[in-house]
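ok trying again, last paste got cut off:
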Amino acid sequence: MRALTPLPYPPARRSGAVLALLTAAQFLVVLNTSVVNVALPAIGSDLDAGQAGLTWVVGAYVLAFGALLPVGGRLADLFGSRGVFLAGLALFAAGSLAASIPTGAGPLIAARAVQGVGAAAASPAALALLLAQSPPGPVRGRALGLWGAASAAGGAAGVLLGGVLTDALGWWSVFAVSAIATVPVLLCAPRLVPRDSRGRTGPLDLPGAVVMTAGLVLLVYGLGTRDGSTVLGLLLPAAGVFLLLNLGSIERRAKNPLIPPALLRNRSVVAGNLLMLPLGMVWLGTFFFLPLYQQKVLGHGPVTAGLTQLPLAAALMGASALAGRLRGTLVPGFMLLAVGLFWLARLPLDGAFLTDLLGPTVLIGLGLGLAFVPLTALGVTGVDPDHVGVAGGLVNTTRQVGGALGLALLGSLAAPAVGTAAAGPAALAYGYRRALVGAAVIAVLAAIGAGAHRRIDARADQRIDVGANTRTSKPIAEKEPS
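nice, full thing came through this time. structure:
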């Protein structure tokens, strides 16, 4: 293994410019998880894409992004963060440009997958560069705070921007703008971001990367098909589960494992990822079905649908900031999320924003924010400093893959009512209700799991001598968040 050459921290002025560049890239990457949601009805109409096709317009990006995040982080270790960041951004821009050309549902889904692959390379490399540019202490804390704010702002801005662009220019423009906005980042990065001499000579864990990616794709694709009762519909997810279950044995034999086995023995990391999975399922599922209900049932235009989701986004950002200062927000967050989803699942045919949408969406935003921050911290608690980046990538992978799984599972609940071209507003509302009730049940189960983890962890802490407990030297926090 080649020794790491430390990078000198740049002057504050240059560091600020680099930070702005890297957070702009993260903003664009996260923006594309939500910018398409309000445009889905227009895409379905123009490209004759059914409910399953629209699900994959979102799911292809989320699945490729989430499944390949650890691979992107590992490539940055091997070949240098700067080069992987630039290559990922270029691929992301190419996928965005291809998605803006309305040739059909299939090519659009493929272009979204290319976008996701580029994002999976650019995002972890950008985070590694950000840490390399920020000295430990308050400066790094502020940098990570801006990174988190860029992620939250990207998700919030995507809903409104998607509505404005779709209404003014057409759905294709949401992808064209992403391609255009990536160009200045690509042009400025070679000048601003210094070359990094980080890297290891060990090979990429190709078997682990292939098995993990194939397992996730088979699982999510199998669950997303309508033929769940057929042999193929049962074999695909079963094969995915089989591959994922065997990933651990492959990683233990690898010289440079994609996911260090030590992470899988850390109960905080395991709990954080297990609980982040349902949060991702509920998060993306809600942002997928809510705009469809607003436009197809209530008759809202794209801009109106985007504007009426701003209170949800504001509540999410505010709760995230609050959760960073409080303890014990995980279980209340999941419970608020469940209450908001059950309330929203009423979905009346003549619903009004003030009486039927504002209250439940604010609760949903509060619940998401209060749960997301402690889960992110939990996923990197007690981790060796050399593995913090891998752990952070893993918990983000879990959230993205959870979103893809959520689309598949919740979409299958809605499909019997909304899967036909003749489905009217009543049938559509019924299908969306089924999906949101399913999301609420997932949130309740997650709250129960979070409470159980907290009790088990408290009992374990009582049995461990504090002086011998390796978690007393945690780089992230002294105690696990809950």
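cool. Residues 1-202 form a domain with the Growth Hormone; Chain: A; fold (CATH 1.20.1250.20). The two ends are 37 Å apart (CA to CA).
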